[in-house]
Amino acid sequence: MTHTDSNAVSLTEELENYIQSVVPAAKTVSKYGGTLFTLKPEETEEQFCGVFTYQKHVQISFSKGAQLADPTNILSGSGKLRRHINFTEFSEAREQALEELLIQASTL
């Protein structure tokens, strides 16, 4: 999969649409080569997650992921703040767990 691969574009759009459906009040900001989601567009660093297209996967990155309860252990990463989930297709999403993470993230 490459950045211009139609599957990657489709998956990116599918994940972005899913986030928007879970958090309808979210606004999008194009930044850092991806699409960031925020409930506070007037504040430059208040994005709760972002979708980024890479060569072999599409990633949802959670800005304050380390603070999220993740009982199903779907988040990856070990930094101080961020956590992420990599997708090669949407069917990999455990939708209930992902929905809960998105709602949590949007309220932090």
Can you characterise this structure?
The chain has helices spanning 6-22, 95-107; strands spanning 27-31, 34-38, 47-53, 58-62, 83-87. The protein is globular. It contains 2 helices and 5 strands. It has a single domain, classed as Alpha-Beta Complex (Aspartate Aminotransferase, domain 1). The chain has 108 residues and is of the alpha+beta class. Helices cover 28% and strands 25% of the residues. A hairpin with a 4-residue loop joins strand 3 and strand 4.
Q: Main sheet: which strands, in order across?
A: 1-2-3-4-5
Distance between the termini: 33 Å
Number of helices: 2
CATH topology: Aspartate Aminotransferase, domain 1
CATH architecture: Alpha-Beta Complex
What's the gyration radius in Å? 13 Å
Order of helices and strands: HEEEEEH
Text of the CATH class: Alpha Beta
**Average pLDDT rating:** 91
- Proportion of residues in extended strands: 25-35%
Shape: globular
Largest sheet: 5 strands, antiparallel
Total strand segments: 5
Helix content: 25-40%
Q: Which class of secondary structure composition applies to the elements?
A: alpha+beta
Main attributes?
108 residues, alpha+beta, Aspartate Aminotransferase, domain 1, five-stranded antiparallel beta sheet, 28% helix, globular
Helices and strands in order:
Blueprint: H1 6-22, E1 27-31, E2 34-38, E3 47-53, E4 58-62, E5 83-87, H2 95-107
Antiparallel strand pairs: 1-2, 2-3, 3-4, 4-5
What is this entry, summarized?
This protein has 108 residues and is of the alpha+beta class. Helix content is 28%, strand content 25%.
